[in-house]
Amino acid sequence: MRTHSIYKILLFLVIAASPVVKEAGAAEVWVEKGDVVRVHFSGGITKKDADDLTRVLAFLRNESAGKDFIKDSPVNKFLVINSPGGEVDAAMRIGTLVRSYRMAVAVPAKAKCMSSCVYIVAGGLVRWLYGDVGIHRPYFATAPSESFDAAMKKVVAESKTYFSRMNVSEQLADAMFSTPPDDVHVLSDRELKNYWLGREDMAYAEDVEIANATRLKLSRQEYMRRQKLATAESNSKCTYDDEMMSCMVNVYGKYGLIEAKTAK
């Protein structure tokens, strides 16, 4: 996959403006810009990474002359993740940032999204999960200022509130905290769907589908029938690579739903 060296240089200058030294194990953040904007996030998740990503997205928003970066379709701007996890607070911050910019999230087939990374995935309005997404109970690196009992209950409550805010099932938090921290449970396709994670955000999907059914002069039932067929075919044919978008356009065009991926 080709990257654009000019963008790497510009974003390096934006990130390097901070005097804070990059933390050990922190992620690398870089941008690939073509017909769509791909913001790549690879490595551990730290507060510094949340700061870096905040600056990168602000830069992209400010330089998108003639187009509203935030209002543009999520399929035109997405975060590509490959991460073993890291700090929970930082992951929630990044997920909230992704949602505020109305972005899609992709985990490529050879990548992974483990531990706290699942909070970032939850933030995506659209989620393409081809690699492994794994969960386990968050753990403390040092003793908390309060009792462990109080601190753990706080993390559980914050996780459930966060997932609810992202229209993801709170049961995902139950599954996370029932998995020991020295183990990782990789979510199956069925589990991703059951936790409302392996699909578009349901509120976003309703908004887009009703608008598109109206635009295409289809009943909602007929629209959903075609959408189901197109989704099944695109899931089997279109994987995350340079040709994914054109593949999806062809499939949705076949079912007369081409506007379904360009409406918002």
Structure, explained:
The protein has 264 residues and is an alpha/beta fold. It folds into 2 domains: 5-200, 2-enoyl-CoA Hydratase, Chain A, domain 1, CATH 3.90.226.10; 203-261, no CATH class. The chain contains 10 helices and 8 strands. It has helices at 5-16, 47-63, 88-100, 117-123, 148-165, 171-177, 189-194, 202-215, 220-237, 244-254; strands at 28-33, 37-42, 77-82, 104-107, 112-114, 126-129, 132-135, 185-186. Strands 1-2-3-4-6 form a 5-stranded mixed β-sheet. The longest helix has 18 residues, at 148-165. The chain is globular and about 60 Å long. Residues 1-23 form the signal peptide. Keywords: Signal. It comes from Pandoraea eparura. This is ATP-dependent Clp protease proteolytic subunit.
Low-confidence stretches: 1-24, 259-264
What is the CATH topology assignment of the largest domain? 2-enoyl-CoA Hydratase, Chain A, domain 1
**Could you describe the largest sheet, including whether it forms a barrel?**
5 strands, mixed
| Percent helix range | 40-55%
Query: How many domains would you count in the coordinates?
Result: 2
Shape: globular
The residue-averaged pLDDT reads 84
Q: So what's the CATH class of the largest domain?
A: Alpha Beta
Quick one: how many beta strands? 8
Order of helices and strands: HEEHEHEEHEEHHEHHHH
Which structural class should the secondary elements be placed in?
Answer: alpha/beta
Neighbour order of strands in the largest sheet: 1-2-3-4-6
The proportion of strand residues reads: 5-15%
- Radius of gyration over alpha carbons? 19 Å
CATH superfamily of the largest domain: 2-enoyl-CoA Hydratase, Chain A, domain 1
CATH architecture type of the largest domain: Alpha-Beta Complex
Distance between the termini: 26 Å
